Amino acid sequence: MQQQSDLKLFYLLMVLAMIGWGASWVHVKVLSSYLTIHEIIFYRYLLSALSMLPLLRIMHLPLKIPRALLLNLLLASGVMIGYTWLFIAGTKLGTAGLGGAFVTTLIPIMTFLLVSLLSRRRLTKRQILALSLGAVGVLGILGVWNFRSEEIFRIENLYFVLAAFAWAVLTVLGSKSRTTHPLVYSFWLYLFVTLFEGLFFCRFQTPLLSQSLLVHANLILLALFSTTFATSIYFLGGQKIGADRISSFTFLVPFSAMGLSALFLGEEIGASMLGGTLLALTAIRMLNTSKKD
After folding, report:
1. Domain boundaries, the chain
2. Whole-structure pTM over 0.85, yes or no?
3. Alpha carbons 12 and 125: distance in angstroms, whole number
């Protein structure tokens, strides 16, 4: 009974985490008008790493990581930089409104396929049906039929496809770090991303301290809510229930993003969004419920 209660609490935290990811679209959209892509990445993960130190201390979690995990972390930090760059670049150069559809639809599909390939285990009919329902649900949430064909098939939208694959790889890497607490793993991941960005990619062209309160507020929320909380919970889930099942929750991200846009920007919520959300929730339930094919 206690285990069931803990699992329900975890699922609630995952829903909140997906709201955090949905909010990140809004934050990145604002910040990309003031900071370069690599500046956003550097400051985001620097603040995230620093914000985790008090939490790790309170929980008495040692910062030491096994040598065997070092290669995993180095690979994951490179993939994290690649994912973040691809997503922001896609938002700038591609059809921004479709970013949510491409990325959140493809992440669970690619993750399930990747896990299936690595474990040499076929997808069940139930999993295929659930992934299809989730994909249709996401497309319904975003009203993809309102986009012109030239907007959908722009070559720049390939950034979103590559970003989804990068996140699928990152999900699998995070799920393999069972020898270390997920919060410790997240801390080192954010720290390595910060170091790599600061040493090799970020040119620091923009004086951060001279920016407005709007920029600072969005950066802090992006770091604390959308990364420290949301992404750390996601990695915790990867260890708790597996890379493939945890990835199914990304179907909820477009709903949270558009819901927040409706709340803060006055955008309308249509019937297709509500119907799509129900399909996405159905898909998540199916993918997280064990049943024989």
Report:
1. 13-287
2. no
3. 27
